[in-house]
Design goal:
1 helix; 135 residues; flat; three-stranded antiparallel beta sheet; single chain; two-stranded antiparallel ribbon; mainly beta
Length: 135
């Protein structure tokens, strides 16, 4: 740790979010449990044995497509990064005084047989954390 006179009074740290993976909603069988059934050991046998069989239920799940979204960020990861940086600043003798979001805007359009569809969007790409040295 540096001496107090060597450390700046204010510090600004950017924290940038990773882009989120694109997912597609699909219906897939998902194992929800198991059941035990008694079945004959073989076709002509009078002996039975227990057989464990899975129980499946069709569910809607999100499956990654392998693509990265151009307008959705990984906010869970961003929160984790910000939490770590703010705790490190606190341990180094700084107090967080401000968090400024970094917002990015964009524009998209589609062409349909009925005409054009245009839309604008914005999302939080990250933040700038401003901290002040204590004392």
């Amino acid at each position: 740790m540096r001496r107090a006179v060597d450390r700046p009074k204010y510090i600004n740290l950017p924290v940038i979010a990773e882009q989120a993976a694109v997912t597609e909603r699909v219906i897939r069988p998902v194992k929800t449990g198991e059941t035990v059934e008694k079945v004959r050991k073989h076709l002509l046998s009078s002996e039975f044995e227990d057989v464990v069989k899975p129980i499946f239920e069709d569910r809607v799940i999100d499956v990654p497509t392998g693509e990265i979204s151009s307008y959705v960020a990984d906010y869970v990861g961003l929160c984790g990064s910000m939490n770590k940086i703010m705790n490190d600043l606190d341990a180094d003798g700084y107090e967080v005084v401000q968090v400024t979001p970094i917002t990015i805007a964009g524009h998209g359009h589609d062409v349909h047989s009925t005409g054009h569809t245009d839309w604008g969007y914005s999302f939080t790409k990250g933040a700038i954390i401003t901290a002040k040295r204590r004392g």
